[in-house]
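Hey all, quick one. A colleague (J.T.) asked me to put the thymidine-5'-diphosphate job into the tracker so the inputs and the structure tokens live in one place instead of scattered across chat threads. No bug as far as I know, just bookkeeping. Sequence used:
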Amino acid sequence: MKKSIVITGGAGFIGSHVVRLFTTKYPDYTIINVDALTYAGNLENLIDIEKSPNYFFEKVNILDPGALKTVFEKYSVTDVIHLAAESHVDRSILSPMDFIYTNVVGTANLLNVAKEFWKETLAEHRFYHVSTDEVYGTLGDTDLFTETTPYSPNSPYSASKAASDHFVRAYGETYHLPFVITNCSNNYGPNHFPEKLIPLFINNIINNKPLPVYGKGNNTRDWLFVIDHARAIDTVFHHGADKETYNVGGFNEWKNLDLVKLLCKLMDEKLGRTPGTSEGLIAYVKDRPGHDLRYAIDATKINRELGWKPSVTFEEGLSLTIDWYLQNQQWLQHVTSGNYQHYYETQYTNR
Ligand code: NAD
Ligand code: TYD
């Protein structure tokens, strides 16, 4: 059967890399990017492939089941790769309901439409749900998240993603909807919206603005280059076992403060500034409420069973990322105009 794949959230950070990979690598597939174009969705991310004959864009909100059904009918959709979500923890603290609607209700809408549309041929299809390691909660100093770590989400964002994972699993068990889930660690790379740590700090360094480190900067994250995440999604979509979960990570843990210092050093070099200039911008601010101390993924299952592993080192990926932002300042200017200013003031003033 010729594949006709809906990729939700394809105008966002990770989604745009997944859309690009699938559109260029599989010219026989029809790729339909379904995205509501929220503040985080930007079709500029896909300018290089938007004219490909196998690529289509539909401006649809996953909260609208009627519009989703129309897309399924129009393109005879065979598979879904679901990335559309509200994705920023700090925003989930400011407005939790947006996360409950899009991440929980939106995912349930998509599950219902897929289950109904595929009901005569269920076994021939796949619903791929892209999730996060944050559903597992926080870690002590040495342990790792595995696929069997109990869910223990601490933020409205991670709770909404955990709920969506449970719904996907439940539709698999109850209605036999074929599914696969991946839980990935923190991504970084080109096209990352400058509200998350790495792109925010790159943007602030370029503009000589303070670098707001939460608390003492002791929190640890496991960072993965976004193109390696897209490669993992390709691998699991094609070769992952039905009803399985795979953890995806970079084997690359960094304490926030160490990461920020590395970023400052690389930025000073690339901008031709005196060493130490960017570090001088570090400003310690009030900690995030419910701030998870440490995330670290054990990604041995996907490596052992499917042969996936990261392809770039952190130093390579970070250097490529900084170069992309320096060469794409117009992109940065576009996404940081308008509502971004309002968010920035709400989040960082009087912190
Ligand atoms: P993002 O915020 O950059 O992009 C989200 C996209 O979804 C945007 O294009 C937005 O317009 C779209 N969207 C939001 N609400 C929508 C709605 N109601 N209907 C249709 N489209 C909507 O997010 P991202 O960082 O690319 O994350 C993508 C997925 O990967 C999310 O499901 C996220 O939970 C997951 N994930 C992200 C990370 C990470 O580090 N960023 C890590 C692991 C998993
Ligand atoms: P973030 O990029 O928001 O990803 P997540 O919270 O999903 O892991 O944040 C990464 C880490 O950086 C996290 O520990 C919070 C911290 N952080 C700051 O110290 N300052 C900031 O301005 C931001 C956005 C994040």
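Adding what we noticed when we looked at it: The domain at 4-187+224-251+291-313 is CATH 3.40.50.720 (Rossmann fold). The first strand starts at residue 4 and ends at 8.
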